């Protein structure tokens, strides 16, 4: 399939997204995000087949100017210690918002421990990062800036200094947030980036046309058989959920499939004892990305609950054919290998998610499932606003 | 609390907080809780694992799902810090009492890093009448003291001799007893010999001593057709009546269940293998499900561990606090409530706070 790099979401849906909210907030106090689950949301119709309404925090309404400012911030490499890394470095707009690497490369070619998830449809997650350590896009955007293997800034002030020294930024922050240069804070930056990311949505795939558009010819026979397997014998539906009127292919939960778990299994007691001694304080973002063992703790790093050991967030399957390699550590290079992992019931370990079990899929069934997964690719992907 | 007496919590608060618990010489602290008698015991934790029903297929093959349940509980207990003082194993290690199953179970349980106190279940017993268990694993009834609490282990799954003699082979007998809803079944009992032993064991124990009884079947009557039942329960309750504070922990019913009968609090545990429904879903015969019990919500059939789990028990202030660890579901803490006079779920007791069953696509 051909991905048009700078093609646009169809104008109707852009109109929905951009024209509904053009609010200008008044003071920076009201703009500060608390990063709690209690953020009140409003919903904008996505206008795209197969996608639900887009959740938008009431305290960070969408506007064209804010989205465009966010896109500029998203692409600015000056927000890294050596001027080489922006958000777009690992979440490339021209590559379905991933980097196609096993694990991402940050400043000085340093590598982390995690495979970059796509920004496409990330707006729909109830938590961000593979371990869900942030609740929203605003909270997510601030962490990589300070991580020593990503942007490597010593503090958010480094970024704010760059912003304040750039007249184009100061005038745009003024028009978007109604604030003077002195008042610009990292939260404003985060809000603008998040607003941009809320426009990075895609649906209308052959699957959507078949399931929600009632176009029986949209899928091949093999893909239709694959969809039936997906809903039944292959047991995909329970976590990568397809709804009645839309599908984002997630359950907002965390599951242990055993991938990478053997790296930490011998050290679990030592790790848990340390965790108990530190009164279960959450594992830092830096440690997760710089320490292979800590990375494998998964959701446990956030909750300290042993049930969450090695559990990672269910990712969307939209555009999955474009976003290899797979899994939190990028350890599986092809969809065939992912299907094989599920077919053998994951990698055995005591914390294996209990829905995971051997499936007994035949070669034909695996091929059909693959056809179906390939039908989840959108014909047009969103790109950067001009 | 009596006036002028310090509760243990107050005492600790005034002596540097709860963190000091481990260094406070508890033997010097007299506990008085709400007129429930006096005992001296220090805080400790034990884990409770029950009903894994390990099932032999052939050779070295066992049912994967049930192995997974027990392994998960063992691994989780080993990762508890601070470690519990010991694990109570509540019975039904095997599905059909086979040596392969008991050996396999012991091999898995040997990974536990703390001692295990064993209770036998009917699935472990009725193939060879408990011989292999007694030979390789544990006595069937015994008692021990731990940090000021007296523990008694009972074999509560005995039954009438006539029923035992009724079957042609040990396998037939085992298979009949292994069925839940079996018209050919026979009710469980502790039996006169063991009741006599129990009386003797408790003779010299002061009535203020916290007493914990561990059994497989519930030591009260819930639902006879499923053998959620102990035929001589009233006799046992009467032997325990002189104590201020008695707690029974039992397995067998594969569900969250708690009750209070006079001076005795009862707590059941989920299985690590599968959940049973509540007998009230079956209306053919009367049942005596405790009104105070907040039921587990309906299990999600996709997740084979939902409705299963284990528990750890905090023994503090001469009272237990039961932490139900429900996998794939919400954990629950149930503890004795002085004002209510029975165990209460700390979160879900009020009807409006209960968890609704999962909706499934």
UniProtKB/TrEMBL annotation, chain A:
Major location category of this protein: periplasm
Residues annotated as binding heme c 2: 236, 239-240
Domain (Cytochrome c) ranges: 221-377
Cofactor note: Binds 2 heme groups.
SUPFAM superfamilies: Cytochrome c
UniProt cofactor(s): heme
Gene Ontology MF annotations: cytochrome-c peroxidase activity; electron transfer activity; heme binding; metal ion binding
Keywords, in A-Z order: Heme, Iron, Metal-binding, Oxidoreductase, Periplasm, Peroxidase, Signal
Pfam families in alphabetical order: CCP_MauG
Binding-site residues, heme c 1: 87, 90-91
Keyword match Membrane: no
Tagged with keyword rRNA-binding: no
Post-translational modification (record): Binds 2 heme groups per subunit.
InterPro entries: Cyt_c-like_dom, Cyt_c-like_dom_sf, Cytochrome_c_Peroxidase/MauG, Di-haem_cyt_c_peroxidsae, MauG/Cytc_peroxidase
A Gene Ontology term for the protein's cellular component: periplasmic space
Subcellular location: Periplasm
PANTHER family xref list: BLL6722 PROTEIN (PTHR30600:SF10), CYTOCHROME C PEROXIDASE-RELATED (PTHR30600)
Full protein name: Cytochrome-c peroxidase
Organism: Leptospira andrefontaineae
TrEMBL record, chain B:
Top-level lineage group: Bacteria
GO terms for MF: hydrolase activity
Residues in Calcineurin-like phosphoesterase domain copies: 45-255
Family matches, as InterPro entries: Calcineurin-like_PHP (IPR004843), Metallo-depent_PP-like (IPR029052), STPP_CPPED1 (IPR051918)
Descriptive protein name: Serine/threonine protein phosphatase
The organism of origin for this protein: Leptospira andrefontaineae
Upper lineage: Bacteria, Pseudomonadati, Spirochaetota, Spirochaetia, Leptospirales
């Amino acid at each position: 399939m051909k991905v048009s790099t700078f093609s646009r979401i169809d104008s109707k849906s852009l109109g929905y997204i951009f024209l509904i909210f053009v609010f200008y907030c008044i003071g920076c106090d009201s703009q500060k995000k608390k990063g709690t689950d209690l953020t009140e949301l409003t919903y904008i119709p996505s206008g795209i087949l197969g996608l639900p309404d887009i959740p938008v925090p009431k305290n960070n309404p969408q506007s064209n100017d804010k989205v465009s400012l966010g896109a500029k911030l998203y692409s600015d490499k000056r927000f890294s210690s050596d001027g080489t890394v922006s958000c777009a470095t690992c979440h490339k707009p021209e590559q379905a918002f991933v980097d196609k690497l096993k694990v991402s490369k940050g400043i000085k070619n340093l590598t982390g421990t995690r495979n970059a998830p796509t920004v496409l449809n990330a707006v729909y997650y109830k938590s961000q990062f593979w371990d869900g350590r942030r609740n929203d896009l605003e909270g997510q955007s601030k962490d990589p800036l300070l991580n020593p293997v990503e942007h490597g800034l010593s503090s958010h002030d480094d970024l704010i200094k760059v912003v304040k020294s750039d007249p184009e930024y100061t005038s745009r922050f003024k028009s978007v947030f109604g604030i003077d240069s002195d008042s610009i804070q990292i939260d404003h930056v985060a809000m603008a980036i998040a607003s941009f990311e809320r426009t990075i949505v895609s649906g209308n795939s052959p699957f959507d046309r078949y399931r929600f558009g009632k176009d029986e010819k949209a899928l091949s026979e093999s893909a239709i058989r694959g969809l039936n397997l997906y809903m039944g014998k292959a047991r995909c539906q329970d976590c990568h959920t397809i709804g009645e009127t839309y599908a984002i292919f997630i359950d907002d939960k965390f599951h242990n499939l055993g991938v990478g778990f053997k790296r930490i299994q011998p050290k679990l007691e030592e790790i848990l004892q340390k965790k108990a001694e530190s009164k279960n304080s959450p594992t830092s973002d830096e440690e997760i990305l710089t320490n292979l063992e800590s990375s494998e703790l998964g959701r446990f790093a956030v909750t300290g609950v042993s049930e969450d050991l090695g559990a990672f967030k269910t990712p969307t399957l939209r555009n999955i054919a474009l976003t290899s390699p797979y899994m939190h550590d990028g350890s599986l290079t092809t969809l065939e290998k992912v299907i094989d992992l599920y077919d053998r019931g994951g990698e055995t370990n005591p914390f294996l998610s209990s829905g995971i079990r051997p499936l007994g899929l035949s070669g034909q069934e695996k091929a059909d499932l693959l056809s179906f997964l390939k039908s989840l690719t959108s014909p047009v992907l969103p790109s950067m606003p001009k | 609390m009596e006036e002028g007496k310090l509760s243990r919590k107050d005492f600790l608060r005034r002596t540097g907080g709860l963190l000091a618990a481990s260094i406070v010489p508890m033997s010097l602290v007299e506990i008085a809780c709400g007129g429930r008698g006096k005992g001296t015991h220090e805080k400790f934790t034990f884990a409770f694992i029950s009903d894994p029903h390990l099932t032999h297929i052939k050779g070295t093959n066992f049912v994967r799902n049930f192995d997974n349940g027990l392994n998960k509980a063992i691994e989780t207990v080993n990762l508890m810090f601070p470690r519990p003082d010991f694990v109570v194993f509540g019975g039904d290690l095997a599905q059909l009492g086979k040596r392969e199953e008991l050996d396999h179970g012991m091999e898995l349980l040997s990974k536990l890093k703390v001692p295990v106190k064993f209770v036998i279940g009917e699935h472990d017993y009725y193939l060879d009448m408990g011989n292999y268990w007694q030979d390789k694993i544990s006595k069937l009834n015994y008692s021990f003291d731990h940090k000021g609490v007296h523990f008694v282990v009972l074999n509560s799954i005995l039954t009438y001799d006539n029923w035992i003699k009724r079957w042609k082979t040990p396998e037939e007998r085992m298979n009949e007893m292994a069925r839940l809803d079996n018209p050919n079944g026979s009710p469980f009992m502790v039996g006169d010999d063991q009741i006599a032993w129990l009386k003797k064991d408790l003779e010299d124990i002061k009535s203020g001593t916290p007493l914990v009884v561990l059994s497989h079947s519930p030591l009260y009557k819930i639902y006879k057709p499923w053998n959620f039942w102990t035929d001589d329960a009233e006799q046992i309750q009467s032997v325990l009546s002189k104590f201020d504070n008695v707690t029974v922990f039992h397995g067998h019913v594969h569900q969250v269940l708690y009750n209070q009968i006079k001076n005795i609090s009862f707590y059941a545990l989920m299985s690590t293998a599968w959940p049973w429904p509540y007998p009230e879903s079956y209306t053919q015969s009367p049942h005596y499900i405790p009104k105070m019990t907040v039921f587990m919500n309906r299990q999600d059939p996709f997740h084979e561990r939902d409705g299963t789990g284990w528990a750890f028990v905090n023994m503090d202030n001469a009272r237990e606090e039961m932490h139900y660890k429900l996998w794939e579901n919400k954990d629950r803490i149930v503890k004795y409530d002085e004002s209510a006079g029975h165990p209460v779920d700390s979160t879900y007791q009020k009807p409006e706070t209960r968890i609704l069953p999962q909706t499934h696509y």
